[in-house]
Write a structure and sequence with these properties.
alpha+beta; binds flavin-adenine dinucleotide
């Protein structure tokens, strides 16, 4: 077993060495460096296109998915080796995709065979970009309070309502969306629907942030007709699909706690202030503990052996850690770090990254909600 894994590691290393273009081993510097794929994606460079094509061909955009759906059928241990070898040379992810991190796992578990064959290979190849239609103006933490309605019209669903904070809705090709198909029960009346964002009646309005970016939108549905076979799982049982997907979303967001390829803050920052140095040392110890805990969690999660509430624990720990990391970077950078529009500050990268982390403990469910889940389902405290 170990010998097989050693062979796999050395073959993987050789392949990456030969196939990962040098430009794709450079750190991410701007949004365009992150390839999201989809119908309207414009590659930032030939290297970006080539890297995606080569990884797709090998099934390595989704290494642990079965081969029939565009994956490589790797075991969790092999997938981990691939990840380590990519990290060793600083290789970028070939594809960033809500299809891979969120919808795919839900389709693998709840989708019909027809849905799996139709959507999973497209996701693996980065041909369709997805967005997530969960939150509504009156339903965020209380997600099951959602009001977007899908009426059964015999040969199709008719969808009416509004979503909010839909990340990249204006750039996405398709949406996975929670809709109310019955008002008899709060959680029991929700269905999980997929539809094309070009369907007549779908419109988006970007929300402009203080940073000047518009990473998300209000999304409106006015008499949107959706084919009947685009419900995932059973009608009125979409809450099960939604919760399962949220576990995967939280797993993805928890990964922020690992700080990318940044490594130890103590090696990166050398402030004169001894108190700040002590805070940085304490942070590095916690980051190492989180990395060790993550290794165990990700392995168990991929093998389907993790406690159902453990993504909440990891999401809470990872995002609070990431926020602390950027607070320390700002503190060590002093007033220079607040610069926003100069070349010297790389267009305010530190400040913008720091501000972005504020959303980590909101997106995918707030820290308070994660703590409620941990309290109830892991610690067994009375429900809230
Ligand atoms: C960067 C970003 C990207 C996002 N992308 C998407 C997306 O693509 N698709 C999508 O559907 N949504 C998206 N969201 C929305 C996100 O899921 C919600 O913002 C989140 O679930 C919180 O809901 P809310 O904003 O309505 O806040 P509310 O639910 O109104 O919460 C307000 C405050 O009250 C606290 N609170 C609420 N209920 C409780 C409770 N029971 N116990 C203790 N405290 C409580 C919360 O912790 C929070 O501090 C995104 C959000 C962000 C910030």
């Amino acid at each position: 077993m170990t010998a097989d894994l050693d062979t796999f590691r050395s073959q993987t290393r050789d392949w990456l060495e030969a196939n990962c273009p040098p430009e794709m081993r450079e750190p991410i510097r701007s949004d365009a460096d992150m390839c999201w794929g989809g119908r309207n994606w414009t590659f930032a460079s030939d290297a970006q296109r080539l890297w995606l094509e080569r990884m797709v061909e090998r099934g390595w955009t989704v290494p642990h998915w079965p081969k029939q759906y565009g994956g490589a059928g790797l075991s969790p241990t092999e997938a981990k080796v691939l990840k380590e070898e990519m990290a060793r040379i600083g290789a970028r992810l070939p594809l960033y995709s809500f299809g891979i991190s969120m919808l795919g796992p839900a389709l693998l578990k709840f989708g019909s065979e027809e849905q799996k064959n139709r959507f999973l290979p497209e996701i693996a190849r980065g041909e369709i970009r997805w967005c997530q239609g969960y939150s509504e103006p009156g339903a965020g933490s209380d997600l099951a309070g959602l009001q977007t309605k899908a009426e059964d019209k015999g040969d199709h669903w008719l969808v009416n309502g509004q979503k909010v904070w839909t990340s990249y809705a204006d750039k996405a090709d398709w949406i996975f969306c929670l809709v109310r198909t019955s008002s008899e029960s709060k959680q029991g009346g929700i269905s999980f629907l997929l539809f094309d964002m070009e369907t007549p009646g779908v419109s988006t309005k970007p929300i402009l942030l203080i940073s000047g970016n518009s990473p998300f939108c209000e999304t409106f549905f006015d008499d949107v007709k959706v084919p009947k076979d685009q419900v995932v799982g059973e009608v009125n049982r979409g809450w099960d699909v939604a919760k399962y997907l949220l576990g995967h979303e939280r797993e993805m967001i928890a990964g922020m706690g690992l700080g990318g390829t940044g490594g130890s803050l103590g090696k990166m920052l050398r402030p004169d202030d001894p108190f700040l140095r002590a805070d940085i040392a304490a942070f590095d110890v916690d980051a190492l503990a989180f990395a060790a805990m993550s290794e165990r969690f990700f392995e168990m999660f991929k093998a389907g052996e993790a406690h159902p509430a453990s993504p909440s624990m990891m999401k809470y720990a990872g995002t609070e850690l990431n926020k602390r990391r950027h607070e320390l970077i700002m503190a060590a950078g002093g007033s220079d770090a607040l610069e926003r529009d100069s070349e010297r500050s790389k267009n305010g990268k530190s400040a913008r990254d720091w501000l972005r982390t504020k959303a980590n403990s909101i997106e995918g469910g707030t820290s308070e909600i994660q703590l409620n889940i941990v309290a109830k389902h892991i610690l067994g405290l009375p429900g809230t």
